[in-house]
């Protein structure tokens, strides 16, 4: 794979927004090629004064989808941004495209030249979005825990998704809360360019969807956007050329802080965006999810399942996500319930052993997937080694033997307790944290 477009820079020729239909169009130029993305929000109920500036930030975030096609050595921002938003822009490209740079062996992307135009004139009036929170739903255990915490806490969330498929819709349907959906459409020529050999790879898509959500909230008089990103999302997969490479960068705490700063500096929005679950480990979230059986028939975190048109097969049972979620839920659900959720018992399939070795840190690095920390996987293994439903499962027995033989041993009581303290740094407001703590 490589560049099939001769472009010295990514440029921003302009954007449009129709306030009657709620359709936004963002144009990006790579040499002579101009590509257009469309985001259909639907007709707005209100037009918040900060909306235009949030669309400025979305214009920049969505550009990462188009930058990667040619990976030029410069980005020429065509949108004036507040100076306080520029650290977010630099992090978006330098860190958000870290995995893309690593996989395509493009080290210059880590220090990509970003040329801003003059800072935006004027300081926006500060405001804090009021109204019911807009909470993003991805179909997995994390967003389900947030949905339930907000609902039980009397915060009346509005559920949200970008391009929701049948899986996400089925999860939303379990909840009585109202739903808002937005349609994001990439320029259709991107498929042709990728087929012709253009660069491809991971982008900070959570940053894009987060800003779509903030704009949606402003169009309907809603409150803050609530995400469901956990503490382990901030942990990198590996180090390359002295830089941390994190598949989940746009879900991590540094990215959350950068985006909050950009929203405040450029749009005047305070506490407009945060992750409710930031203080929790994956295992803590799994334990909370286990309290709610009503989602068992619809929940999924498998990326392979999301590529289907329907929700018939919710778990492929063979990818890093399936392996990790099965591992994380097993100590809290018991065998019968978990096999019912997945449709298979992964711990009886020794062909999965190599994948579990990666999760345990026995080989290679943590997979480029949305999975928990190595330490969390080891704590889960310790709990399974003591669980009557799981301790004799072939995968569990083999992993316990290998971890013990490696010299590290299984985690002690202190490490287990630490996984459930829920005291990792968080930017969520106290009112929302109280709702989360009420789940137990």
Automatic annotation (TrEMBL):
Domain MurL N-terminal: 7-276
Alphabetical list of InterPro entries matching this protein: MurL, MurL_C, MurL_N
Keyword Isomerase among record annotations: yes
Statement: the UniProt record of this protein carries the keyword DNA damage: no
One Pfam family it belongs to: MurL_epimerase_C
Any coiled-coil regions, as ranges: none
Entry-linked HAMAP family: MurL
Protein name as it appears in the record: UDP-N-acetyl-alpha-D-muramoyl-L-alanyl-L-glutamate epimerase
Originating species: Dactylosporangium sucinum
């Amino acid at each position: 794979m490589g560049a099939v477009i001769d472009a010295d820079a990514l440029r921003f020729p302009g954007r449009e927004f129709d306030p009657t239909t709620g359709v936004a169009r963002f144009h990006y130029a790579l040499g002579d090629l101009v590509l257009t993305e469309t985001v259909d929000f639907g007709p707005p109920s209100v037009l918040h004064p900060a909306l235009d500036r949030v669309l400025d930030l979305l214009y920049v975030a969505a550009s990462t989808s188009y930058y990667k096609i040619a990976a030029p050595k410069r980005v020429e921002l065509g949108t004036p941004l507040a100076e306080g938003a520029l650290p977010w822009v630099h992090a978006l490209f330098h860190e958000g495209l870290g995995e893309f740079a690593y996989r395509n062996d493009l080290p210059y992307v880590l220090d990509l030249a970003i040329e801003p135009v003059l800072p935006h004139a004027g300081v926006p009036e500060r405001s804090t979005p009021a109204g019911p929170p807009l909470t993003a739903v991805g179909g997995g255990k994390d967003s389900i825990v947030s949905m339930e915490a907000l609902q039980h806490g009397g915060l009346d969330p509005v559920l949200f998704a970008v391009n929701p498929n049948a899986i996400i819709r089925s999860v939303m349907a379990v909840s009585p809360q109202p739903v808002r959906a937005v349609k994001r459409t990439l320029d259709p020529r991107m498929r042709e360019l990728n087929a012709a050999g253009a660069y491809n790879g991971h982008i900070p898509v959570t940053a894009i969807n987060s800003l779509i959500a903030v704009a949606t909230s402003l169009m309907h008089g809603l409150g803050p956007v609530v995400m469901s990103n956990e503490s382990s999302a901030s942990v990198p997969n590996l180090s390359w050329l002295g830089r941390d490479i994190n598949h989940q960068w746009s879900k991590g705490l540094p990215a959350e802080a950068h985006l909050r700063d950009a929203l405040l500096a450029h749009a005047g929005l305070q506490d407009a965006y945060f992750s409710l679950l930031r203080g929790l480990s994956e295992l803590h979230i799994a334990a909370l999810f286990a309290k709610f059986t009503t989602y068992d028939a619809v929940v999924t975190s498998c990326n392979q399942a999301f590529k289907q048109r329907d929700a018939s097969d919710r778990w492929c049972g063979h990818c890093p996500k399936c392996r990790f979620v099965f591992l994380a839920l097993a100590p809290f659900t018991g065998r019968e319930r978990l096999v019912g959720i997945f449709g298979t018992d992964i711990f009886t399939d020794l062909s999965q052993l190599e994948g579990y070795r990666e999760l345990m840190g026995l080989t290679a690095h943590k997979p480029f997937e949305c999975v928990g920390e190595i330490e969390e996987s080891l704590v889960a293994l310790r709990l399974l080694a003591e669980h009557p439903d799981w301790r004799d499962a072939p995968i569990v027995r083999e992993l316990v033997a290998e971890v013990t033989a490696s010299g590290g041993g299984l985690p002690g009581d202190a490490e287990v307790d630490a996984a459930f303290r829920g005291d990792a740094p968080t930017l969520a407001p106290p009112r929302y944290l109280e709702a989360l703590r009420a789940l137990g």
